[in-house]
Amino acid sequence: MDARVKDKLSHYVGGRRVEGQSGRYGDVYNPAIGEVTRQVPLASTEEVQAIIENAASAFPDWAQTPSARRSQVLYRFRELLVKRLDELAEILSSEHGKTLDDAKGSITRGLEVVEFACGISQLLKGEYSEGVSAGVDSWSMRQPLGVCAGITPFNFPAMVPMWMFPIAIACGNSFVLKPSERDPSCGLRLAELMTEAGLPDGVLNVVNGDKEAVDALLTDRRIQSVSFVGSTAVGEYIYQTGCAHGKRVQALCGAKNHMVVMPDADMDQVVDSVMGAAYGSAGERCMAVSVVVVVGDETADEMMSRLKPRISALKVGAYNQEGVEMGPVVTPDAKDRIRGYIDRGVEEGAELVVDGRDVEVKGYENGCFVGATVFDKVEPGMSIYEDEIFGPVLSVVRAGSYDEAVSLVNDHEYGNGTAIFTRDGDVARDFTHRIQIGMVGVNVPIPVPLAFHSFGGWKRSLFGDQYIHGPEGVRFYTRMKTVTARWPSGIRSGAVYNFKRGGEH
Ligand code: NAD
């Protein structure tokens, strides 16, 4: 191991940290300094199988635990999240790079899912029909699935796991989390806090690893469901492989979110919104705005003249430096990949208005920094328009009309988020109806649904048909059972050989 590497991480199994046995490790960077600071064990298939066994043994007792007692664990977990917010943000930012305030905001968004899951007794209430036939009653209930798995991306190492396990566990399932190997420490700490909150050992486990660990989860018959959040290529593979092995799968994937700016939009609001939505978290958000479609050259010229100085002045630095608005990207590889896209944008003929390739941060010369970048006059077909760059690179496309803008959004392969900026209610209403996208904002640049709604995209941004968290989260982690019951004192109909209309006996 590199002499500078301080920490060797572990897995979390049966309520405690467990050392990796495979002998394989991955590097975890602190992206602000560009150095490897931790090593994460990459689990073998056998290690994953042992972890699944642990989760499977914990399931029956947990499923039998009354829902009100399950939610008490989540109430205590919520209190611990509040108490440990600073510590969690420091862990998160030191591996991901986002600013501490942004890290805290994202943890709070996860905490809101925990708060939603605390109401599980209400959420699991079934339906009851008295007297569906003479002396016959019928009711439905939702029951847990068994062992559920979650495979999560690097960009929200606390929030995205909390989109999954609090609801799955509240529903009575046990859970195996496979966090991103690029920033795994948050997942481990969250599992420890669940134990501290009173969760029985084995109900929440964390396995660290790469493709080998994921494949072991996808093919194991004891895993009932797989929740995935990550890139489209991997998500499609996970959906197909998981389904082929009989699992329920939801795979939330990549994005290229377009923000449409109409000529009547409030330009101050537009500029503020673009700054936060394109460059917050260095553009490493699946709901980041990466394309702005401006209707009309005059509007585009005005927006660019206001945006350019703001983008050039954006303060880039380490996550814990005072006044920093944008941190580094996650690894040296990500930095090279993003800079490569800027090179290609220039080669393909887009107009590079602000170039972030050579940004320098004093005292952090080896950090994984890419400065805020904007291209004007981008066109469909260019790689900076078609691909998800997942960095602080914004493309501005000029459209001749509203209809052209709508077609651009609808024709793109991704369908996660979009927004329209306008003062015209008719246009906004038409947009929300016609647009082929899962989450839509009207003068709201990042329309992320809150915890009590469900989150998900359309087209190649989601494989599977259930969104995550909110009511669809509860449906995803449970299955329905419907009971029809008659008691001996009821009316007897003798042997019946033919189906009859409902209500007849
Ligand atoms: P990624 O697809 O590289 O990794 C996600 C997970 O899949 C990780 O746990 C990783 O270990 C695993 N994985 C990677 N390659 C694999 C393979 N070949 N086989 C099996 N498993 C594999 O994604 P990332 O780079 O960590 O995250 C960024 C991506 O996530 C972006 O595309 C972003 O849009 C997407 N994302 C989507 C949402 C959403 O809700 N739609 C939210 C956050 C992030």
Give an overview of the whole structure.
It is a single chain. With 505 residues, the chain is an alpha/beta fold. It folds into 2 domains: 7-253 and 461-482, Aldehyde Dehydrogenase, Chain A, domain 1 (3-Layer(aba) Sandwich); 257-442, Aldehyde Dehydrogenase, Chain A, domain 2 (3-Layer(aba) Sandwich). It contains 16 helices and 23 strands. The strands form 6 sheets. It has a 7-stranded mixed sheet with strand order 15-16-17-14-13-19-20, with helices on both faces. Strands 10-9-8-11-12-22 form a 6-stranded mixed sheet, with helices on both faces. It has a 3-stranded mixed sheet with strand order 1-5-4, covered by helices on one side. α6 links the parallel β8 (147-151) and β9. α4 packs parallel to α6 (159-170). The N and C termini lie far apart (75 Å). It binds nicotinamide-adenine-dinucleotide (NAD). The site of nicotinamide-adenine-dinucleotide (NAD) has 28 residues, from α8 and α9.
